[in-house]
UniProtKB/TrEMBL annotation:
Annotated organism of origin: Nakamurella multipartita (strain ATCC 700099 / DSM 44233 / CIP 104796 / JCM 9543 / NBRC 105858 / Y-104) (Microsphaera multipartita)
Name of the featured protein: Amidohydrolase
Domain Amidohydrolase-related, first and last residues per copy: 49-399
InterPro entries given in the database record: Amidohydro-rel, Metal-dep_hydrolase_composite, Metal_Hydrolase, MTA/SAH_deaminase
Domain of life: Bacteria
GO molecular function, one term: hydrolase activity, acting on carbon-nitrogen (but not peptide) bonds
Length: 431
């Protein structure tokens, strides 16, 4: 691809540049000045801004059939409402929701997502076939809890037992990684968390968990365990290995130091946290004190889109509003979270930047529209002006998944129709 403005990372912008990659290795082979005219088959660079593929650090992609289902309730009530819908979802419903999310993520420039939900071989194969990268946490809500009764009879204990085999099945897969997924301390309890810590260490697997999402969760944890959810995770051994935590909106006094010292990655989900009235994570404090922060959309039931450009803008603006300081989180900080920050959760497989030797995971944006004109600062445009709908092309591991607005691996119309039909059936079932 020649002639584009390329944001290799938030502090490195190449203008009128060329980017090349190998379709065999899936890695970038050249990034620099234009070496010659475009060749047939090259992506069109003129009028395009190229950036590293975005990483969604926290999703429940299989939940997208719940988009817009519960809109005005606090987390504990929202969980009850969502639960009433979820128990009716068959595996085919969850698969339809997952595939709808895959369409939306590709269309809005996401190349990788860290997810927690029902996962099995077939669902992981769906992600592989679509061409996206996934860090898939197999969700557990307690030893005896059957999380998705209409979709799978498995109890939490059975899911925990089966997770290492599922991870081993995809061990050689470039796109798929499997982790343990204890949902949260308030559903799983300390004993299960300690058990997961041991299993993760034995099988060399990471853990993805929700921690300290609401003030109520923090208060209940103090009452029940005498400490914060993050301290409880440390006490159970869960922070000893690679762990990725969603939210961390309400850290206790020493929690930030704990997260930094243990190399924990945090998925900041500003839109979900604002929509559920959960609070605002102290992101400037995290960044200043060396905590790795990525950006996540959380589920479609608490967002309602998978467009990471909304998270980038919101993350920057809300931090400034809270701090009453326009430098609290800069455009480069916000873009870095959505790329390099989230990539860290993938355990070194991704860097979230464009450079020779790195995976060819990239996104092209149309910057010819009125809302992108003029564009004196490409990084500021990405943070404050760009939208998912501006994405024209997406490449993952050297494979084009979106070419000039056309999906190459998924039947979008069919997926949308199926999603609508399935939602109508679920909502038609008696409460
Ligand atoms: Zn979540």
């Amino acid at each position: 691809m020649v002639g584009a403005t390329i944001v290799a990372d938030p502090t490195t912008v190449h203008r009128e540049a060329e980017l090349a990659w190998s379709g065999v290795t899936g890695r970038i082979s050249y990034l620099g000045p234009v070496r010659g005219p475009a060749r047939p088959g090259d992506l069109v660079g003129a009028g395009r801004l190229v950036l590293p593929g975005l990483v969604n650090a926290h999703t429940h992609a299989g939940m997208s059939l719940l988009r817009g289902y519960s809109n005005e309730e606090p987390l504990h009530r929202w969980l009850e409402r969502v639960r009433a819908f979820e128990v009716r979802m068959t595996r085919a419903d969850i698969r339809a929701g997952l595939r709808l999310s895959l369409v939306e993520m590709i269309r809005s420039g996401t190349v990788a997502f860290a997810d927690m939900y029902l996962w099995d071989s077939g669902l992981l194969a769906d992600v592989h076939d679509a061409g996206l990268r996934v860090l898939a946490a197999t969700a557990v809500f307690g030893y005896d809890a059957v999380a998705y009764p209409a979709a799978s009879p498995q109890t939490g204990a059975q899911v925990l037992d089966g997770t290492p085999a599922l991870a081993a099945e995809f061990a050689g897969d470039e796109l798929v990684q499997v982790t343990f997924g204890p949902h949260a301390p308030y559903t799983c309890g300390a004993q299960l968390m300690a058990d997961v810590a041991g299993r993760a260490a034995r099988h060399d697997l990471a853990v993805h968990i929700h921690l300290s999402e609401t003030a109520r969760e923090l208060a209940e944890s103090r009452e029940r365990h005498g400490c914060s959810p993050i301290e409880l995770a440390a006490w159970t051994g869960l922070l000893a290995g690679p762990v990725h935590i969603a939210h961390a909106v309400h850290p206790d006094d020493d929690d930030t130091a704990r997260l930094a010292a243990r190399g924990v990655t945090v998925a900041h989900c500003p839109v979900s946290n604002l929509k559920l009235g959960a609070g605002i994570a102290p992101v400037p404090q995290y960044l200043t004190r060396g905590v790795t922060v990525g950006l996540g959309t959380d589920s479609m039931a608490s967002n309602n889109t998978a467009d990471l450009f909304e998270e980038i803008k919101t993350a920057a603006l809300v931090a400034r509003g809270v701090a009453q300081d326009p430098t609290a989180v800069g455009a480069a900080d916000a873009l870095r979270m959505a790329t390099q920050g989230g990539a860290r959760a993938f355990g070194g497989r991704l860097s979230g930047r464009l450079a020779v030797g790195e995976p060819a995971d990239l996104v092209l944006l149309d910057v010819t529209a009125a809302h992108a004109t003029p564009m004196p600062d490409p990084v500021a445009h990405l943070a404050y002006g760009a939208r998912g709908a501006d994405v024209t092309d997406v490449v993952v591991a050297g494979r084009p998944l979106l070419v000039q607005g056309r999906l190459t691996t998924l039947d979008e119309d069919g997926i949308r129709d199926e999603a609508n039909q399935r939602v109508a059936r679920i909502l038609g079932q008696a409460d």
